[in-house]
Target: trimethyllysine dioxygenase
Amino acid sequence: MTASAKVTLSPDGQRLTLDLDARPREFAALWLRERAPDAETLDPRTGQRLIEAAELPLDLAVEHAELDGEALALRFSDGHAVRFPVADLLAEDKPRESVAPERELWDAGLVEPPRADFAAALDDDAALLAMLEGLHRVGFVLVSGVPTDEDGMQALIERIGPLRRTNWGGIADVKSVANAYDLTMTQRGLEPHTDNPYRDPIPGYIWLHCLTNAADGGDNTLVDGYRAAEVLRERDPAAFDCLTRVSPGFRYRDETTWLESEGPLIELDSQGRVSRVRYNNRTERVDALPPEELARYYAARRAFYALITSDELTVHLKLEPGQMLIMDNYRLFHGRRAYELAGGVRHLRQGYVDRDSTASRRLVLRRELRRQQAESRLEETA
Model:
């Protein structure tokens, strides 16, 4: 803590300003009270709140505040006293960003995608964490050494979270079949798209495992949807705004299934950051909006499509047997070139894992490995 650090209260005590290094940060008294890090307010084991926050008085104030070492000592008008670690308060003061934190945007110039080894990720927590961190940061990871049997990726899925089952089952084939129930099961090329926007919730991560890929063509295309959205925001703000406001519907139907949902092609979080993209030409159904609004939407969609199909943003790769792509379905547009079976068989397998279980596994592993590293450093200095 610097000597110049100071804390001040507003005249009514309902605002507290913490000034460190000439950078003031303001906190509401009511927010501080309901977040008080003590056993009366938060359960020590779960971190869940024990008091009913909605019953706190709306005019609650901080009556006394002082910096004490690395903590901020507070006394509130309801009589509660608590010590806040200053580091915890600073962690809450996050800078505004255009996309969610810890992401790296990329385009066709991406030199080296995140890579992982299947056996290492299966057996070693540090390797698994590195794989999940790369997936979180870049939006996809290329995994090698996956067994080339039909359920070869299942063991690694089980290290992360349950397989998401759909009307197509668990792990499903991606190969050309007669009477295909979906265009992925044909030889045609596929435009850049996100999967299953007609579901609620939309599957979080796509696992695409290559068993054999000897057909002519069939290369995968990958586009960073966050990057595409940011480029659109920079170059055509009106189109960007339109695609964040208009929510087309998406629909999938067959003899046994009827799925419908809706959402904007570019979705923002509460801070205005890009948090999700959608694009699925095959299943999109736009409502009969007023003609002027439809005209704006169609022009904006066309501008976005031009970006996500451009050489500027597209990475190409062809999976080899034993390789697997794990892709963030909230971020990545993926597609493929058409292929011909004259050159050989193209057989991939695909499954889904939800976003919450994947994020949970990454964050728990990060916490545990940091704890182990801290304990190891203490042992070395003892």
